[in-house]
Amino acid sequence: MNLDGLDGFTIEVPSWAYGNSGTRFKVFTRPGGPRNPYEKLSDAAQVNRLTGLANRVSLHIPWDLVDDWGDLKAHADKLGVQIGAINSNVFQDDDYRLGSLCNPDPAIRRKAIDHHRQCLDVMRQTGSTDLKIWLPDGLNYAGQDSLRGRQDRLAESLREIYDASDDNHRILLEYKFFEPYFYSTDIPDWGTSLLHCLALGERATVVLDTGHHAPGTNIEFIVMQLIRQKKLGAFDFNSRYYADDDLIVGSADPFQLFRIMSEIVAADAHRPESGVNFMLDQCHNIEEKIPGQILSVLNVEQALAKALQVDQAALATAQREGDVLGAHQVLMDAYETDVRGALADRREARGLPRDPVKAFQASGYARTVAAERVGGTQASWGA
Amino acid sequence: MNLDGLDGFTIEVPSWAYGNSGTRFKVFTRPGGPRNPYEKLSDAAQVNRLTGLANRVSLHIPWDLVDDWGDLKAHADKLGVQIGAINSNVFQDDDYRLGSLCNPDPAIRRKAIDHHRQCLDVMRQTGSTDLKIWLPDGLNYAGQDSLRGRQDRLAESLREIYDASDDNHRILLEYKFFEPYFYSTDIPDWGTSLLHCLALGERATVVLDTGHHAPGTNIEFIVMQLIRQKKLGAFDFNSRYYADDDLIVGSADPFQLFRIMSEIVAADAHRPESGVNFMLDQCHNIEEKIPGQILSVLNVEQALAKALQVDQAALATAQREGDVLGAHQVLMDAYETDVRGALADRREARGLPRDPVKAFQASGYARTVAAERVGGTQASWGA
Amino acid sequence: MNLDGLDGFTIEVPSWAYGNSGTRFKVFTRPGGPRNPYEKLSDAAQVNRLTGLANRVSLHIPWDLVDDWGDLKAHADKLGVQIGAINSNVFQDDDYRLGSLCNPDPAIRRKAIDHHRQCLDVMRQTGSTDLKIWLPDGLNYAGQDSLRGRQDRLAESLREIYDASDDNHRILLEYKFFEPYFYSTDIPDWGTSLLHCLALGERATVVLDTGHHAPGTNIEFIVMQLIRQKKLGAFDFNSRYYADDDLIVGSADPFQLFRIMSEIVAADAHRPESGVNFMLDQCHNIEEKIPGQILSVLNVEQALAKALQVDQAALATAQREGDVLGAHQVLMDAYETDVRGALADRREARGLPRDPVKAFQASGYARTVAAERVGGTQASWGA
Amino acid sequence: MNLDGLDGFTIEVPSWAYGNSGTRFKVFTRPGGPRNPYEKLSDAAQVNRLTGLANRVSLHIPWDLVDDWGDLKAHADKLGVQIGAINSNVFQDDDYRLGSLCNPDPAIRRKAIDHHRQCLDVMRQTGSTDLKIWLPDGLNYAGQDSLRGRQDRLAESLREIYDASDDNHRILLEYKFFEPYFYSTDIPDWGTSLLHCLALGERATVVLDTGHHAPGTNIEFIVMQLIRQKKLGAFDFNSRYYADDDLIVGSADPFQLFRIMSEIVAADAHRPESGVNFMLDQCHNIEEKIPGQILSVLNVEQALAKALQVDQAALATAQREGDVLGAHQVLMDAYETDVRGALADRREARGLPRDPVKAFQASGYARTVAAERVGGTQASWGA
């Protein structure tokens, strides 16, 4: 089984995945939860240590602000990971009740823009080059604000942020169908995100969160279209059955994940030089967090490994000949291939455990941190 | 305009609507939020004072536990409201991470059952006759637990609760499509709720929350079917665009609310003797809470007033004759009728303000409580 | 009630609405169905005669091909209507089993392109300036064809059609979420349609069919966004509960139709000079067809009339002040206004019947054509 | 790999799958399509000959009416297949425009009931014991008819049919979310179907069509619940992305099919003595029909084979211990197992081709029937 295409493929993990998260009804807590960015990085480093796949960690500002960035970077270096994308947060402040970059009040827009300038500063200090913006803005009631006015304000706010960014910075602009507002969101779909990116310039690209679409949406089509426009900047991987469920990627519809990775392979976008940042963005509400992250990166790797097994020549032939079922079966043959053994072999050959989840359980790490991390406040969430 | 059908029609409001609520991302706070059940009842009483429609208040246990129930009832009496349904809570305790009445651990099922016994005791002390159970139990991952095993445990747990209830008690069993779990919930649909109610006995009935269905579900059909089975116990009214958005009832799809109320009128279920408890269950995340509740009860009243305008004889004739558009238009004629003036007249005639929302704003109540309610912790949420 | 904004507002009706249509299960027939384009125009003219709103009729090629276009135009003139948009058809030929403009076989793409050239010729002969393209292409199975390859072929095919069009021609490009293919469609969303239009040039614009979206999609947001991009070319109005149900516009969610028309009014796009073509595209499966069309144009007019009642100054003030419920209520006040009487008055003042549906029933037209149209084959459908 | 659980497991195929089918837009035709029930059985027998899985064929009345049932049975015997369920048809007659068993006109209800009596007669003559009723009744417009009145008529009609059936007959009652009507259907969900079955008696059971649910519905939950009620009579297998797409089962979401079959295995319902009839009900619009059916039965077999690999003891332990990810992974391990080789071995051992689709292509059957079946009218469709 040829798995060379996996070489160089990595997945970025989010610092907030190790903190507590939940639903509006309840955030469950567990012993050993990290209390600061240092401990989050330590947890994240476990994922990389055991899978060899996750050597970058996204930070979330202001949750992950530290006094001494050099010190945090040194901590990361020691752990074998790097600082990845910087995520802004314009949803956890009372001021943002009616929005941030789209708020009708210019003073609050100013505050939200300035927060992104702060994030750009963090990027300069950490060496991060990706500013990821998830815009939580939206409306709950028809008429509450002008849909058009909000787009115009958004364009203006983004322009200022983009102009404040450096030449080596990318702006990654996420879209989301609904939540935390329920009548409309101000970037509800890939089309709106793309229009803003096109207006901004070359360094602005779209983030595709696999959980942020209407029921029935063909996500791999969007992946294809954004690649075709050279505007796919990053993924936020996770799984959904109903809404933005933020479950472990690949747990709800592994065939969809495979189809997405097949579009990636078809465009050679799994290679590092493609510039696509493959990130996780999930909640672990009831399961253990580090095993949840390990399983997630393995699921993405597995889907990619299967996508690499597609017999591209046979597929192209069947497609050209209009052999509907034949072409479909070429794809399904790759999907039905059991790649678990080959992936375990590959890990072993690289000095990694065959079964990273079991290796984590055996490591005693969870017990150790539960014993050590006493007192203080456990870090909590975000999606 | 004949509005006699409104006589005796009332809507129950939830105590938790006046506390803070929000999404998993943020709970916004406001000055003057109530800090205890007494203050919640005071807020709720405003709704009734200004609309004459909302003379019962549902409580939520343990949030609304007080030391002296007689004293709370006296407070309610003074405010002109009564204690309505008692709502149990089996979702805000770490023990319930894997469920409550369905939990694989019998000790946790015991705890959840005992909590419902406590609620029955509250009912005995407050004179409430409705125990409302929203079961938050469910799974996030396929295989996580046995779907079948959980149904059997649920049946057993409910049996014990039902048997512990008094002859004048009703069990109102709610269903919900998803959330707070995302692979499955243990009472996902009206069919499952009904099966458990049928197994329990005559005093168990179904709660229909208008936000707890899959996209596209015809809710008035379910209303009709539950009435046909004599098993519609109560409504939890609210609005949704996407998921369980918990917006103000009637704000997202007023025509749907009208269709629901038309089925109610067709079965004479709006009359108090029908036993259907018309309740609100909403979040007010960004809007003012008391005006939000006032608007909600007015929206339900307006939909009912329109439904009462349906020319039933003309409708029956057109239906019998297979006049598709004619029958539809009879319904639409009622819907398009502007009942606002007649409702304002009716309120005026009963000594109520023509415009209850404006009357509330003019009353200075919000300012007063903001000044008075200083210190302490504002009550917070639940859906 | 000021209804001046209605002046000059018209709705285009489709020739195929008067022929037989149905579902995959059954096409019901009725006496008097039109058998040719002449009879379709006669039926369509009834709608305009009774409502004064529908003076243009879209044609569908090849269904509406005639030998002598001058003669058809003269027939239309005599009836008081004009030829509107020309609709191509690339779905009712065995050749199009695997697609038309995206087909893997270049010979079939050629045939499909040539069909559009034929449509452009019809436009030249009828004076129509709008070529409406609904692309039925898509896939039923993952892997069946290359999603990316199909986009590239589509771009190429559209380029050729656009280049073959005249300077006074517009290309109206429709998108559709699913059907008649179920794994993917080649223009599934407004984003894809817009990207192709942007690539083509100024004379290419997007068609928004109100039934062609995923569940939960905020359609008025898309209306706003397309107007903001100056790329909203036309509407295909109809109603849906579940899929592309093609019911009478305004029958399923009249509030949504009102919100859409409110965005139109907010952008002054209801005025003829906006260039937006307001068209119907519906099926009348079980109801009478001419009354169904009359009701449809009246529903659109009614929604526009209500949207014109929005107190824009009060709305802007409430929005600016962040008065969530106040702003929402300004909108709802317009929606709750009963405009039926004022619209009847306006019709009467213009020499039109107060109740166009009743006037049609009283006219005996249906009986007349049922008696006259004997023999021949009734025209059948398309959506 | 232990595949003993497959012994005795069979799938019933529908006679109409071999005729032409399509969407409302187009029914594509192909050379060699069967023209009568004899030729349909011949085609169906190919599926069984090559897979050993499909020895029963459902008939559809009146499409499959023949003069001499004994002769048709003899033809079936010779082909190695039997007559399976008898499907009624109350949707392809102009009389049924407003419904059949629910029609407001008693004469049409009478006709529809009598049609089912005819189907019962066919059962007596063919030895079939299953009468499958898919009720296409519904409404397109709110108000069009009384939802409640229709339920009462339905109950009455079904009662008469049930009473006319023999003691060895089963009534299989299907539900469907929407289509061919779009405002409501008269049996929209499993709850409604079950209520009617409970009212009818022991021999009435529910049919679960995998394509007949709202988006996001957890189908395996319903499977479990119906089994728990001893009321799961049959499956109609197929796949969907959006609506009732009727694609090849397992092609859209193979993991869902696996989860369904896992619930089946958990309840031992895959064994013939369970009485669950596993049927296909699909359209093959653009793909070859016999290969489409072969692939479908293989997909169901594959899903069952995987479900049989679940380590039930490990699963039960992990579930009991509340090991969320551990339990999920036990299930996923079975799902990720590649069973293709073992299934091919098993086929070979039983004298069947390792690759039934390839064997069919090699057999020349398609060419033969295309040459033979000249003249006449190809059988067409229904879903």
UniProtKB/TrEMBL annotation, chains A, B, C, D:
GO terms for biological process: L-lyxose metabolic process; rhamnose catabolic process. Residues 67-248 form the Xylose isomerase-like TIM barrel domain. One of its GO terms (molecular function) is metal ion binding. Keywords: Isomerase, Manganese, Metal-binding. It holds the Pfam family AP_endonuc_2. Gene3D superfamilies: Divalent-metal-dependent TIM barrel enzymes. InterPro entries: L-rhamnose_isomerase (IPR050337), Rhamnose_iso-rel (IPR013457), Xyl_isomerase-like_sf (IPR036237), Xyl_isomerase-like_TIM-brl (IPR013022). This is L-rhamnose isomerase/sugar isomerase.
